[in-house]
Amino acid sequence: MDPGRIPRRAFLKGAGGALLAASRGRAAALQPPNFVLILCDDLGYGDLHCYGSQIETPNIDRMARQGVRFEQFYSTSNVCSPSRASLLTGRYAQRVGVPDVLPSNATTGLSTSETTIAEMLKPAGYRSMCVGKWHLGQLPQYLPTSRGFDEYYGIPYSNDMSPSVLLQNKSVIESPVRLNTLTQRYTQQAVNFIQRSSASPFFLFLSHTFPHIPLAASPAFKGRSGLGLYADVVEELDWSVGQVLQSLQDNGVDDNTLVIVTSDNGPWYQGSAGRLRGRKGSSYEGGVREPFIARWPGQIPMSNTRLRGPRVSQVMATTMDILPTLARLSNATLPARPLDGIDIWPALVDQPLQAQRDLFLYFDGWNLQCARLGPWKLHVARYNDFAWSPDPAGGRRNLPLLNPELYNLDHDPDESYDVASENPQIVADIQQRIQQMLPTFRSEVMAAWQATMSDNVAPTPAGALPVLQP
Question: What is the pTM of this model?
Fold first, then answer.
């Protein structure tokens, strides 16, 4: 037989395979995109190699090279429960009833009148799974499978809380939880979900327990980094990201999946906030500015055409922006209640934002502490101690700053140079915007603001916000 000729049967088989592959490709193109949202717990702005860390994170670094890395991405809280509430609803936690960390015996949770990402996506045909930490209510009506997710596997709150339980949907399957294999098991659950969901659009919320303390790593990673247990844990999280990306490729959905990696708040004791001031529990940048990497092959450009290097965005964005962005991409109907987040898809694809954010507020509990407008961040109140220090005599209090502090975060991200005295009009503008925005929140926010400002302030007309005395 002429080696250059292909037997008719083999030709027809190959042609049929090519047609089938092309058909699958067209079907994938028509199918709404999949979403994988990977949220780490207490991962600091400076904990990833692509953000300057010595810790090796090759899989996340590869995501950054193949997509976009944001340098000004924010959680809406410096602690976990409020951060997660905002992420899943696109609204400030102070609007949805989760202003503080929920205890393990909480009888409340994320308000059932709010719409989560999973609930939004379900009518659009999406299957959803939450793997990992939840921390938005531990009673059955607040757990993920009651909030739009088809499946749940994880710890319902932080790993330092008791009782230590691992849930499958709403049933306890392990107590106490074996923490050293948790990242491995979360990863396997995520991979299994991708495998059985690849024929339809899906939303995977992989919400890692670590690097929240107490830390634990599997035998394969313990001691591997040479930089201590914290680095071991982060390297295992990076491994997990790599396994998820490989599963997307293995199941033929990589080109139709948006993958996001971020964190819920700043680092606690051992992590790094990079050059930023503050940590978890603080309204300085180190407590709320997070790593954020997004990757979608063929959709999110891999490089900056102007600089011809990996794309690094300076657009200011927040966890509240994820829900409206996914709504746009999935053609899902937005929740009925007004959102605080905006659609940031144009920024992901290196285009100007179509929607504009007015003011971004930094809360601690019900207490407003800072507000950001463009590059300007104004500190108006602050606690009289740090969250990780012993309470001072008289207890911990949120106190007004007699002289509000203004920082230009484009030039001074570590908040070292107060420029309020040189920019009185900007200070006055932000204060006026605060005055207009706060009354749109629940009454607890205004009550907390009035209580904060009750000391050392001048009298004000009824209904106006207090003005600080010089």
Answer: 0.90
